[in-house]
């Protein structure tokens, strides 16, 4: 019975450590996904601007 508390506390520390690692990985993954979403939105905006410029250029040449 005297070792019960030792193992109980050791298991609690290990479980807490694993939960901390899991939460850290989850936050890193979430921020990476957000970064990629921002990058994709920027690329989409750039393509939209390029497309608008091309349309405007075509319009000017047709005049």
UniProtKB/TrEMBL annotation:
Q: For this UniProt record, give its keywords in alphabetical order, as a comma-separated list.
A: Membrane, Transmembrane, Transmembrane helix
Going by the entry's taxonomy, the superkingdom of the source organism is recorded as Bacteria
Enumerate the transmembrane spans. 6-25
Q: What is this protein called?
A: Uncharacterized protein
Native organism: Candidatus Woesebacteria bacterium GW2011_GWB1_39_12
């Amino acid at each position: 019975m005297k070792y019960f508390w030792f193992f109980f506390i050791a298991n609690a520390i290990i479980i807490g450590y694993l939960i901390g690692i899991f939460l850290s990985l989850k936050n890193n993954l979430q921020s990476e996904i957000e970064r990629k979403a921002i990058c994709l939105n920027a690329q989409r905006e750039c393509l939209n601007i390029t497309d608008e410029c091309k349309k405007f250029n075509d319009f000017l040449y047709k005049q």
